[in-house]
Design brief:
Blueprint (H helix, E strand, L loop, with lengths): L8 H4 L2 H12 L3 H14 L7 H32 L6 E3 L4 E4 L22 E2 L5 E2 L7 H17 L7 E4 L10 H7 L2 H4 L6 E11 L3 E3 L2 E4 L1 E10 L3 E2 L9 H19 L6 E9 L6 E2 L2 E10 L2 H22 L5 E8 L2 E3 L1 H15 L4 E3 L11 H4 L4 E9 L1 H10 L15 H20 L2
Parallel strand pairs: 2-5, 2-6, 6-17, 7-16
Antiparallel strand pairs: 1-5, 3-4, 7-17, 8-15, 9-13, 9-14, 10-12, 11-13
Length: 437
């Protein structure tokens, strides 16, 4: 399975588990993926204290990277077929603007009855379902973008201007827009006078849209916190400083930041998404690692949240006599603020194209993405929400007393035909209206 001897016995013991996981995910390609994973492990011995979880993560990342490359290849081919000029920049004369649905590859579970759904699935040793699905509708976004490109390529006599179509990657990790700008997006292609985008929303009927001026999505910061202790035997806790107990206190302390330090009228969220320490029942670990996401709109609130997260960690560590914690912030993204003028023009066009009943008001949410980074580069913008829930799906949800399956869940399944039809119609209409401004 690997082409060199493995000096780490505890690493070798994980080979059957890793190979089984890879075969569940990619079938006949498993051997190659597992070999890559073990070679990476040998190059990174610092990770081998917890080999199973690290190797499983590496395998999933390797497979995801392969699928992303294949998706990008297919998207480039479709974009090239959609336009006879430059695939990402259709040009006539005069004004300029851009449409930028974001994209990565998405998968819908076959149990939802979608004949095009991926059959990829995996199960962790403990029985919990795992996989590489990212159900946020980016397959819909990319399809709508390509449909929009086809319309403008086929109807050049009906518009004037320079239209830049952006396939913005990595919006969930809050780095795609920043990376594109850093790579010379606005130097290599015309800098637009405005930018327009859409994002799926299962709370809106399929093919309908939601629009609002001003704040739409929150600022976000990712935080990695490491609380250090003194490890030892689980039967001798008095000789240790238990970082798990410290982490439990820290999680509770974080809740008081929003509830007791932030003005109740200001939106703010701190969520602990991951916590991990130790690897055996009777061992007290020497550290505990936590991953947080922090959301806000107001810049002053954002800085207060970040400072309080650090303050709470340091204070608890000092009270326990533990070493100073490590707190690292990453993936910073500002709030997404829709420009009033651009939004008003887009809304009028959407009402004309879809009808008043199909154009609702979108409420601000604490979700985030970095399309708003283009505004920081001097490009006024508007993002609107595209509904994905069909009548039958809504009826089923009503009958069960539940909400329609939400984004970032394994059950999210857009009603494809009306969603894509409505998305293309909406994006084309709003873009044409803005090109006429």
């Amino acid at each position: 399975m690997i082409d060199r001897p493995v000096p780490h016995e505890h690493l070798l013991r994980e080979a059957p588990f890793v190979h089984r996981l890879a075969r569940q995910l990619v079938g006949d390609e498993a051997d190659d993926v597992v070999q890559q994973a073990f070679l990476l492990a040998l190059q990174r011995p610092e990770h081998l204290t917890q080999p199973r979880s690290w190797l499983a993560r590496v395998v999933r990342n390797l497979i995801t990277d392969r699928r992303r490359r294949e998706t990008r290849r297919l998207a480039r081919e479709d974009a090239a077929a959609a336009t006879t000029a430059v695939p990402c920049c259709a040009t006539a004369t005069g004004r300029s603007g851009c449409c930028a649905p974001t994209w990565t590859r998405c998968r819908s579970p076959r149990r939802r009855g979608c004949r095009d759904a991926s059959t990829v699935h995996a199960e962790a040793e403990g029985g919990q379902a795992i996989g590489v699905m990212h159900a946020c509708g980016h397959d819909v976004h990319m399809t709508v973008l390509l449909g929009t490109a086809r319309w403008f390529a086929k109807h050049r006599e009906q518009w004037q201007g320079t239209l830049v179509l952006i396939g913005q990657p990595a919006e969930e990790r809050a780095g795609g827009a920043r990376a594109m700008v850093a790579a010379g997006l606005f130097e290599r292609f015309p800098k637009p006078a405005w930018a327009l985008a859409l994002h799926c929303d299962p709370s809106v009927p399929a093919g309908n849209v939601g629009v609002r001026s001003g704040p739409l999505m929150a600022a976000v910061d990712s935080v990695d916190v490491t609380l250090f202790g003194r490890g030892g035997h689980g039967a001798r806790p008095h000789l240790t400083i238990d970082p798990v107990v410290l982490a439990a206190q820290y999680v509770l302390a974080l809740q008081t930041i929003v509830s007791r330090e932030i003005d109740p009228t200001q939106p703010a969220v701190i969520t602990v998404g991951s916590i991990h320490a130790g690897q055996k029942h009777n061992i007290i670990a020497d550290r505990c690692e936590l991953q947080l996401t922090v959301r806000s709109y107001d810049p002053a609130v954002r800085e207060h949240l970040k400072a309080a997260i650090v303050r709470k960690a340091k204070g608890l560590a000092e009270s326990a006599g533990a070493p100073a914690p490590k707190v690292e912030f990453s993936e910073p993204t500002g709030p997404l603020l829709n420009d009033p003028g651009i939004t008003a023009a887009a809304r009028a066009a959407l009402v004309e194209a879809l009808g008043e009943a199909a154009v609702g008001s979108a409420e601000p949410q604490m979700v985030a993405e970095d399309f708003g980074y283009f505004r920081e580069q001097g490009v006024p913008l508007c993002m609107f929400r595209l509904g994905t829930t069909g009548p039958e799906q809504q009826a089923q949800a009503n009958a069960s007393g539940e909400l329609p399956a939400q984004l970032h869940t394994a059950r999210f399944h857009p009603d494809a035909a009306p969603t894509i039809r409505g998305g293309v119609t909406a994006l084309v209409a709003a873009t044409r209206a803005l090109l006429r401004r």
